[in-house]
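Researcher: Going back to the complex we discussed earlier. I've cleaned up the inputs and rechecked each line, so this should be the final set. Can you rerun the prediction on the complete assembly and write out the structure?
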Amino acid sequence: MLRYLTAGESHGKALLAIIEGLPAGIKLDGSEINILLERRQGGYGRGGRMSIEKDEVEFISGLRSSYTLGSPLGLLIKNRDWENWQTAMDPLDPVIDMSKRVARPRPGHADLPGGIKYGHKDMRNILERASARETAARVAVGAVAKELLKALGIRVQGHVFRIGGIEADSPPKIYDEKIYDNPFYCSDPRVRDQMKLVVDTVKSSNDSIGGTIRVVAEGVPPGLGSHVHWDRRLDGRLAQAVMSIPGIKAVEFGMGLRSSIEPGSHIHDGISYSKEKGYYRERNNAGGLEGGITNGEPLVIRAAMKAIPTMIMPLQSVDIDTKEKMYAIVERSDICAVPAASIVGEAMVCWVLAEAVMEKFGGDRLEEIVENYHNYLQHVKEF
Amino acid sequence: MLRYLTAGESHGKALLAIIEGLPAGIKLDGSEINILLERRQGGYGRGGRMSIEKDEVEFISGLRSSYTLGSPLGLLIKNRDWENWQTAMDPLDPVIDMSKRVARPRPGHADLPGGIKYGHKDMRNILERASARETAARVAVGAVAKELLKALGIRVQGHVFRIGGIEADSPPKIYDEKIYDNPFYCSDPRVRDQMKLVVDTVKSSNDSIGGTIRVVAEGVPPGLGSHVHWDRRLDGRLAQAVMSIPGIKAVEFGMGLRSSIEPGSHIHDGISYSKEKGYYRERNNAGGLEGGITNGEPLVIRAAMKAIPTMIMPLQSVDIDTKEKMYAIVERSDICAVPAASIVGEAMVCWVLAEAVMEKFGGDRLEEIVENYHNYLQHVKEF
Amino acid sequence: MLRYLTAGESHGKALLAIIEGLPAGIKLDGSEINILLERRQGGYGRGGRMSIEKDEVEFISGLRSSYTLGSPLGLLIKNRDWENWQTAMDPLDPVIDMSKRVARPRPGHADLPGGIKYGHKDMRNILERASARETAARVAVGAVAKELLKALGIRVQGHVFRIGGIEADSPPKIYDEKIYDNPFYCSDPRVRDQMKLVVDTVKSSNDSIGGTIRVVAEGVPPGLGSHVHWDRRLDGRLAQAVMSIPGIKAVEFGMGLRSSIEPGSHIHDGISYSKEKGYYRERNNAGGLEGGITNGEPLVIRAAMKAIPTMIMPLQSVDIDTKEKMYAIVERSDICAVPAASIVGEAMVCWVLAEAVMEKFGGDRLEEIVENYHNYLQHVKEF
Amino acid sequence: MLRYLTAGESHGKALLAIIEGLPAGIKLDGSEINILLERRQGGYGRGGRMSIEKDEVEFISGLRSSYTLGSPLGLLIKNRDWENWQTAMDPLDPVIDMSKRVARPRPGHADLPGGIKYGHKDMRNILERASARETAARVAVGAVAKELLKALGIRVQGHVFRIGGIEADSPPKIYDEKIYDNPFYCSDPRVRDQMKLVVDTVKSSNDSIGGTIRVVAEGVPPGLGSHVHWDRRLDGRLAQAVMSIPGIKAVEFGMGLRSSIEPGSHIHDGISYSKEKGYYRERNNAGGLEGGITNGEPLVIRAAMKAIPTMIMPLQSVDIDTKEKMYAIVERSDICAVPAASIVGEAMVCWVLAEAVMEKFGGDRLEEIVENYHNYLQHVKEF
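Model: Rerun complete. Updated structure for the full complex:
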């Protein structure tokens, strides 16, 4: 059983993560994490904060001489803005700088429902944790999971599929990492200018815009997840993981929504066989999953992210002290965070696949897992 | 902690479910379950099996004189077709009627990936459990969860939103139960004829068709789920539950995909306040969830179901013995199962909400939960 | 992840169990379960009920032609006494035979704390589930786990170590199954007569007596459980499982309590090595566990069971209606249930080991698990 | 659901803990944690390390101005010895000081089984995490749980009951905190000198000694835990938590082992009632638990700790490179760690009770929990 917990407020001291259940023998030197942390901070349309901080992971435990020990991996990512916020966010100081108090909740955020739930009249106590900054810890965790998958030849990549109404015309596959050189993390060079135009236009009207991310996993063996119980279905588990990313409002696999419009004869991926490839499909409308189980084809997930609700143009709200109609507070904000979300989506998919791999192949040493894995691939071949 | 397990093959003796963690004092007489079981079996476009069986629940344990005891609730639903299948499916008999063997896996089903995973050269061993018949047990479980919710004034209802390309023009709300009198479980009377035409057309070409279900929950208090950790977010948990229904390929909340296309100023639901209603919204694009937490507005979930892959017109496959190209076997099949899926969707949403309610309000007696709930509603009012 | 739920009241229709997460390919024909069910019902000192019922398992699902499918295994054990109790225990009938009501709770049972917790003024609603009859379902589940372990060469056996003050003088090891021919399930023939005398004496004074069970597992590989996180330690998990058996008040591993009295130099099991055996120990004071991990030596657990609190000689209680001092009700009872408890202990140890095996070796087919297991044993040998 | 993870090696940078699921509004200023950390480091018979380090907690997240936010609480405890160990334990440096390598595993520790499991030929990779230093993180976590319990009037205290053969003659109850002024954490002043003599004698022979701890919880309401499913029984859950403490080999509740020797009429705690106290018992042989449920009497747990296996007088082992017979390495060591274990036991009991409280009473704000709790106490009173 692989599991993790994260902690940390957006303007607190640091983000923390503990990953428990990792096998021994995974090589990590921090660079694999830092690259993904940097990508998460990048992308066209980000606000001012991203230039303040350049996230870097510090290993606290579970690693020795660049190899995992099998004990819990402790990760820490400092918040570089902390010194500016200590007077408002100190864990212990009984006197707090109240100028940072939030009394006018922002629609579209956890501010109001979270404030009610936890009884916080200062909704900063909610937004500090509900902030998408929390996803930096997830990205670090996902980067570790990715290294485990890599040892089995499973590759995972997220990218941007659509910004507002501008959709890429590109097949769902793993791309050269150069796609992250462009600030849209988009594999289709022809639409990037249009995407830029959309974001610039939205920015000039103090508004925000969303889009769709796509995550693809190649080299996934058939047989991850299971049909035998609802909560073992990998599509469900992936859907939870991706839907839990802030701002995501829709998740699709493969042909997704369209497979509910076209007749069955157009949809299903006929089964073929060749000695070299074993069983395979000519097309992959199912997105790599049948009956909640991976079928050996690439996993393809799309997720739609709403336009970010923290806009410079504020939204209608209520002052919770006076109950008067007011504009919501405006917190430092992005115009478009879809590129960042594609990196978070990649991380979440890596995590779920790593969980599924550990369940299916067991093992406490990376070598043991790889050995069990190859035995299984042999079985697949002979089926 | 509320949890359940189900068991049962499609042509085995029976389906089973055990629900563990229910409070004492919920009134059940079976009718609330049987009505939903009947709805699940109904709907326009079902195949022949539905007339064979009329599901009825039998309580094995956990209930006395129509009230839950707090001990595990044991549910059993007999498969009325069992006697015809015993020679092929007997748990113990070493001699099995091999005429029911499945060697040509059906695309779009768990047959092949499940066969590989579990090493079954007779893929009947997979499809018997992967069959949507399993959802009858989920519906029974969801019906129990629904009674718990009812005691708190939370109402949940699933209905059909779209069949193929025919979409209802009806707001997301709880409808009179009369909508189940029409075999499309659709609240918009104007489109039912068109839906019938779609299904009939598809049927005449031996094809199948999918659609979209919508589940709405009203009376949900603000504060279920949480932003504090990714796996507590209620949108993620609901997405898993609904995506795990066989055939579902996309899940959306509220405005869903469209909220990723329009600018932020069009999307977010401004916050208002009145003495009578407390905090409320003029519109509900978020679908009742902000930051992974319910916000007091109705919960609105849509899910797209692909066209059923078991068609009379068979799909390309491979004989796993000879590896020759063959048509897939044809198992008894529906043309369209979207109405049934709406009932399963309702059940899964009931379950997740019941889990969230038990986490938030604790308690071992229904009265205790209701009391804790009302204290919380008082807090909400005073916030 | 292997998991199970049980359900069923002592005088209800039946006991149920669902086991989820089993690999495909385990051979079961019911006899392996029924033998253990019979042993659980036997033993010297049992009350009248045991002659009424002879438990037999019925497979509802998850099994075909005597092999597990990988889908949830559904087990049902009928309560043969049901027809005599239906008027008092019917799940649905609104009119209940109130002569069976329990208003004078029995000390030492869940009656009173359970009645308060669940708000049952008729404490039959508690004792029906708190009854040790529930352990029949656990024994059935454990018998299935035992078959999985058997395929890896891991053998588990429970027996009686002590009744009252009479302790067997026998080493902790797996005995010939003939020990169950004597009604004390005790491997030391010299003390059986004394045990009989103790039970007979206690019986003649309408009293009850407890004792100690011992469960031994041989063929356990080193490396099950882990030191890396508190809840992965196998000693803790075994302790929970065994302590959860009704009546158990103490659990010990290996030398147990005595290892806290003698100095360290007397306790620890020096490490030796030979080409044939690999690493081994000359003695096994640790009971097969070091640092929460199995060390390759036999697992040895002892658990002390209190004297059963349902005695013919009743205990002081209170009538919960009038609050007057009264004797507790007397429910049908055993004099000594230690032999039965040894079978339940065996079942719980089998379960925990099966969980640990599935975590360590993964796999969905029994063959795959065995293959992964043998690869691991090779690694152990080469270490 | 309350949960936590810890991380950290004994000579690594720091210990970490993340507690997830805490309500908002618990007051923490660090002193409540630091006092328990200091007690854990104290006690007669500790080795040299304890003087090096004085543990202090640092709050990384989840706390603002001394109140919990409801978000994950991140705790960090620096290892003050880190600078001396960095060359041997650096997470990243590919060149490691190999003089600290462990190739001769210590009997009684995780060294050998852990080395085999995780494939570490340098068993320092095991012992660094298996070290009891890990319990410092548990103590910090338990101290937080204790504050939650305190708000409900539940008090928990661990103390030393026995060292070697010297047993205190003191009733199981909460003592004045002054008992920690004596280095045996023992409430019976008459035996402390004898305990000192035992430890000094053992020390002079380079040996080690164990003993028994006792943890008592007062103010525990009836109704925590449940009889309805084996894994809900609170005795089982407490047994796991306490047995998971390094060195613990036996766990008992109330009268424990002795209740398996004496006849039933001597054991069970008759039920009484008075208007002032409600239901109560004249004695508490059950240790506060019946049927796996708290019964309102004090919870009483004893746990026996073996003599520490890291002795100055080394034990027989094998060099894993040469397979030759050798003495085990000698790592810095204590003579007797029973006083420290009593503090860890207290922490684990606090944790399990806090979990049980959150399950039974729900709630996200401390006030809400307290309110639900008082409503329940009213129900208890009226039963």
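Model: Worth noting: Chain C has one domain: 3-382.
Researcher: Good, that matches what I expected from the previous run.
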